[in-house]
Please model this.
Amino acid sequence: MKHVTLALSLLMISGCSLTQDPNLPNTALPKNSGINENEKRLLNDKWWENFQDKELDLFVQEALNKNSDLKIAALKTMRFREFLNIKKSEQLPRIDAYGAAATTQSYNVPFDRGFTYDQFDVGAMAAYEVDLWGRLRNTKMAAFEEMMREYYLQESIKQRVIADSIIAYYGLKTNTRIYQISQEQYRNEKAFYTYMENQYKVGLIRKSDLLQEESLVEMFYDQMMKQKDLLSAYKTAVSILLGAEPGEVYQSTTEIKNARYSAYTLPVPSNLPSDILQRRADIQAAEAKVKASAFQVSVARSAFFPSISLSGSAGYVSADLNRLFTSSNDIYSVGANLMAPILDFGKIQANIEITKIDQKIALQEYKDTLRKAFGEVKDTLHAYASNKKRLRSQEKRHRAISQKKEIIEQQYKEGFATHLEFLEVRKEEFEVALSTENIKFETLKSAVMLYMSLGGGFKAEQQNKKTAASAK
Model:
């Protein structure tokens, strides 16, 4: 008995050694990384509230509630959670109830007569696989990491939906504002054309000047119609993002209040956080895939070792249903099965090699995800800082050209500026006004993408606490 106990202990120890190390690479963070405590507070679960816009808050919440991509991701996470439950149950004994009733009729030739037999049986069967090599445990842990990966992917999609909805919100504002500028410019030019037409009729201006004004009016009309089409297309895109019904998408009547907003005083972090590895869901998803692949290698290796299963049954058998449940009719059986591979022509080894290759692929994807993450943070930090400078410059230019337009207009009325100078300055002022709105939007987008690249409001440690119980 001592020898058997010792052998089983050695088997258990050797079984533990089958678990594969995921071999996650050590990551060297950039020097001088880190953000202050005030900036860390910006990276919270509802980071879009930092923009201080109540209407935006409602817009984002509607997108989170209705977006179809996010709903599909949540269902996938639920599916993997149920798969994990299946793998957890495989570690426990299985108990099944059974029952049967049969009538057997036979014919005895020597006695030239038939015989009829009735048999009734009922009972329960139990089966349990002894997990000496950790196959079931490693399978469960692989399923857990796959579930976590799917959860992180869901979180990554959530952050993307939040970012897209914020961009869509400000994009709708920007396109609405540009359309309004185009409308206003067209009305002003049309009114001015009527004035010039009256001037021409009384012989105060040349026909060429009137024709230039007519051309300018039609140009502004064309710009207005283009902006109207762009606004309509943007509303359609926003309706799809918000998960609207087909009829609502076709109507596309989403409206945003034309509230003023500042693009270069947004509260955003100004440096790279030292805990970015915990703040980005895509990095966590890549890490979970590496861990899952390591457990799959362990599962594949366990196929080389014998599997031991225990089984037992207990019940009653009787030829008379009325006397089935009596002590004289009870039966039971207990047994054990051992299966070990002898000759498989390299199938097990090939399966191990496949899982090792999958692990190498997962590790490479993890490294690529890290490089991409730090690259995105660097680029978005630079883009936001650059766009703020561009916006300040463009707003100064807009103020300057607006003042120039007023001066040229006054000079034109007094006869000190030509009609061509007045016409060109109006065109330039319109172009600069549109450019200012577009750069403002680009600045807002770069701020949103900076939040996104820093992980938004996601933090792996907080999420892991909520899901750690699933692995038990």
User: Anything to note?
Assistant: The radius of gyration is 37 Å. Residues 347-414 form the longest helix (68 residues). Residues 123 and 315 are 4 Å apart (CA to CA). Residues 1-16 have pLDDT under 50 and may be disordered.
